[in-house]
Each structure stands twice: as C-alpha cells, then as structure tokens.
Amino acid sequence: MSAPRRRRLVALEEFGGPEVMRWIEADAPAPGPDEVAVEVEAIGVNFGDTMVRRGEYRRDQPLDFTPGFEAAGRVVEDPSGELKVGQRVIVFNDNGRGYADLLVVPRRRVFPVPDDMDPNVLAAVFIQGTTAWYSLHRFGYVASGEWVLVHAGAGGVGGAAIQLAVAAGARPIATASTEEKLDIARGHGAEHAILADPETLAAQVRELTDGHGADVVVDGVNGPLVAPSMKALAFHGRYVVAGAASQTAGPIDTRALMPRNQSIAGFVTARIIDRDPAEPRRAIDAVLAAWRAGELRPQLTVLGAAELVRAHEMLEDRAHTGKIVIDLVADRPEVE
C-alpha cells in the first residue's frame, strides 16, 4: 500500500482573532468513490471565513470546521474517471475546511473550467460573481433600463453586481462608506454613487431616479440600511438579501410590501445548488462568459499563504476593497 499524500492546511486550536490560524501538515484522506482530490492553486477569501474563524458561522460549530469555501486548482485523482487528472476546476467547499493545498471533496462540488483561465481570477469570481449573478437574475429579475441599488459597491459582491447590472443594461446606484470607495464603485460602472447614510439614503435614491425608486436592491450589508432601502424601493421592486456584513438585523414592516407589490428574497448559494441540479453550472458559465467579454473585471488583491492572517485583518477592518485571493502557486504554505 502506498503512503498517504501529505498536505498543508489551516488548523484552529481555538476560536478568536486572525492569529489563531496556523498552517500544519497532515495526511490527506484518500478520495472515496464519489470524491475528487484537487491540488489547490488559489483560495478565495470571503467575509464568511472570518465568521468561521470566530466560531460564529453556524450553531455548535466544531474547531475542525475551518475557514475556506472556494478554491481553484487541478484534479490529481478521481476514482470514477469522470474528471481527468490535470483538469482545472473550481471547488465549492460548503462544509468549510478549504484553506489547504490539497482538497478531497464531493465530486458534485467540483466544476471543470477552461484550462487557460488564471486560477486567481477563478477564485475571485466564483462565489462573489455567482452571488451577484443570482442576486440580479435569479432573484432580482433585473431588466434593461431598471434602477439597481447596490450596497457595498466597492466590495467583491457589490463590485460584481454593479458590473453585471451594467452588462444587463440596468442603471446601478452604489453606496459605500467613504469617498474613496465611492470612486471605486464609479470605476465599476455605477451611474451614481452615494454615501451609505441611513438618514439620507431613501431621499437620495428617489431624487436620483426622478421619484421612481430602485427596482432592485442588492444588499450584502443589512442592518441599518434595510429600512431606508425599503423606503427607496420602487413599485414592484425586488429586495435581495445577499449577505449581512454589518452582522446586525434590520427591521422590516412586511405590511408595506402589499400596496406596492414588492417582494423580498434571500439566499445561500449552497441551498440553491442542493435544490437545483442546473446550478451552479448555469451561474458559473454566465459569470465566466461575462469575464471573457470584458464585462466583469474583479478588483484583485493577491497575497501569499504566509499572509493569510493579514488577509483576515484586512477584511475585518473594513478598509479593503474588492476580492482577496491567496496564491498557492507563487507562495506554498510553510508549517509552523
């Protein structure tokens, strides 16, 4: 019997700040009949990863549920033979544990992609790009000419939503917390960009749209922006909850939905995939097509494995814009 493969992965000995993460070396499990082993080239870092690290992502979260939901790499073993060795893929680790240089994951969570695509780009556009696409097209039903209010317009999901809205012929209005971030949102294609001030938000959106309001709201922030965003929602408007970066609840009086024929939707990508066998392939193909057409250009910050703690610090201090990717080709992880 051959010796098991060795891999390097992030372990948690306790929940807490970014410093609790450390790279260790361990045996990699052999893939079962319905699993695939993937050598990781790039890891996408998301705000949800910081919640995992703090033990706040799900109830009764164990310490071995470590951060990491998306990665790009190449197949090194598929017992079924369905995927060829060397095939470039993206991986959706909905059970976490994705911060590793070798992953063994269910085949249904591994998706072939064109071999010529940069793995850093793949890790940048997968979850955030598909989240933006679902927000606009699956739940927002966006149409050409409609107004789309996008919160956190300088962030990964927000920036992608602005660009995909423009590609759909819609008219994005972005919010952000600073003037610098508003400039970034404008660079993504926002027709208007305004500070995320709950006191003035609704009035500003109404003014910018000549009283019409936002046909679609893509909200990855939640909390204090919910109430004014609902006031800014147009007749037959669709409010899409795509995240909750504020980590606070927003009050909604659902009675207000009825006279204006409005709707609210929220989603988690993993649940879409579980219920719809066409997903996320359909969303992935749409996002990659937008990238090839030049309609989607992620703002990337590429760091090495040794900078993983810094990546989490950047996400949590709210100063970062765009998407952070850990490049494991240029910088393989060193164990402590």
Average pLDDT confidence is 94
By CATH, the architecture of the largest domain is named: 3-Layer(aba) Sandwich
Strand fraction equals: 25-35%
CATH class of the largest domain: Alpha Beta
Poorly predicted runs of 5 or more residues: none
Largest sheet: 7 strands, mixed
Write a structural description.
- Helix content is 28%, strand content 26%.
- By secondary structure, it is of the alpha/beta class.
- It has two domains: 6-116 and 299-327, Alpha-Beta Complex (Quinone Oxidoreductase, Chain A, domain 1); 127-270, Rossmann fold, CATH 3.40.50.720.
- Helix 9 (308-316) links the parallel strand 14 and strand 15.
- Helix 2 packs across helix 3.
- It is globular.
Summarize the structure.
This protein has helices at 47-54, 119-139, 156-167, 179-188, 201-208, 226-231, 269-275, 281-292, 308-316, and strands at 6-12, 21-27, 35-45, 70-77, 88-92, 102-106, 110-112, 147-150, 171-176, 192-195, 214-219, 233-241, 263-266, 300-303, 323-327.
